[in-house]
């Protein structure tokens, strides 16, 4: 038997049968350097230092260029129909119109296929430039532009800086710097979720944001979130109106993490009728949504896949639903919600202590025609007119078509995709 046999494992009976000289030799090896190496703990590895965030020292008013994946939500939900509208409006469905023998002709008013693709692509780039404080689209590679490829288009203004004009800075979405330099998005969840879900966008797409505050000095996560709540930089209410805690917030943007708030979608569609969204406080449309959830209309009583028109009439200064039009279509829900909103006084409390005037409440219309025309253009009309020509459709039309076509990107593929 080899003398290298592990001595601690020799059974008693075996030791009794071995020659005494061998046993002594084996026992002499106990506690030797060979055994010592087996029992000494390995030295602890040098810890890898935590990388310092480049945003930890950012100050209020700074403008940051970041990737969408670096932004953390401060709300649990979005209105899917608002995002579906943008996804449907900004991505051409190549099966919508058939090309002629001439092929793609650009913005040709005689060719539905060409004009549809041109205006869809242009809208996508134009909005991306505007959302990032860079004016609008100056040029783009027709039928080949991709947001993620900045060489395929140019914006009309340069990248924004803290010294940019006030109207440029006002267009930028806002963030709060949290512990460790983590960026928490306080405005722009719908915009940036749309950009992430676009076929030529994604989580690495660059966006420009403005710093609203820096709370990176908070000693604990609890104290940080208390600061956020005190400043009204977080929305802690789920789509059913139930309170949640900060640790229930999603950790990233996307339709696979943010839930659907149907009342938030409804509020978006009342924009320009029930309220004006210019210069409003953070989460203004969620305040309106919370109020509508409690004060009607009850969306369970409406057919949210029906776009039958629902107009108003004004008689003797009194605004009401027009007799004979739909009472339960999605359009009717938008009309009824807007009528409830304009019926409030500016001093009426909406939700969370916010007043209707703070939240952009508009006055009731003095005449029916402008309101009805606006609803047709902005909400329910199709993308082809009575003469068979392409036109921009209403927001709800795009949202429903996109939803019927594919739905949420996290559950099934969409048919509105880039070639």
Automatic annotation (TrEMBL):
Residues 42-52 have a biased composition (Pro residues). InterPro entries: ParB/Sulfiredoxin_sf, ParBc_2. Residues 33-54 are annotated as: Disordered. The keyword Ion transport does not apply. Residues 1-35 form the signal peptide. The keyword Signal applies. Keywords: Signal. CDD domains: ParB_N_Srx_like. This is ParB-like nuclease.
